[in-house]
Amino acid sequence: MMDSTPRLPVEVPTQTDAAWAIPPVDPETNEVLPTAEIERRERIRAEHEQGYFAVDAFYGEHRERIHRPLYREGGEIADDAWEFQRAEGTAVRVPIAEIWGPDRLCAFLDEA
User: Fold this and answer.
1) Would strands 81-85 and 91-95 be described as parallel, antiparallel, or unpaired?
2) Rounded to the nearest 5°, which phi and psi values hold at 102?
3) Maximum distance among all alpha carbons in the chain?
C-alpha cells in the first residue's frame, strides 16, 4: 500500500547555491566578516537571483570603447596571448589558454 501523505518538496542545493553561500568568516583571511560586508554580499546575491551581473567601475567607464565594432583592425599573437590595441590606446590581452582551453592549445602547439 502506498503512503498518500502529502510531502513537501525537498530543496536540493545546486552548485550555484553553494557558490553564493555567505560564510560568517572570510575563507581567505580567516577574519569574521563585518555586518556591512555581509549585507553587501547579500545585496549582490539578491541582484544575481534577479538576473543582474556585476561589473567593476573601470568596465563601466570604458564600456563603449571596449565594445565599439572592429573596423579594419585585428590583433596578433604575442608570446602566450592574443593582443589587440586600438589607435586611441584601448587594449586587450587574452591568454591563449583562456581562448582555446588546454587541450586545444596543446594540439595547436604540437602542429606548430
Assistant:
1) antiparallel
2) -60, -40
3) 77
Q: Which long-range contacts (CB under 8 A, 24 or more apart) does 73-81 make?
A: none
Gyration radius from the chain CA atoms: 23
Q: Output the pTM of the full model.
A: 0.38
Cell, residue 41: 554580499
Outline where DSSP puts E strands in the chain: 76-78, 81-85, 91-95
Q: Using an 8 Å Cβ cutoff, are 48 and 65 in contact?
A: no
Grid cell of 34 as nine digits: 563585518
19-23, 32-36, 52-56, 83-87: least confidently modelled range: 52-56
Residue 67: partners with Cβ closer than 8 Å, 6 or more residues away: none
pLDDT range class, residue 32, cuts 50, 70, 90: very high
Tell me the C-alpha distance between 96 and 101, whole Å. 8
104: left (phi over 0), alpha (psi -120 to 50) or beta: alpha
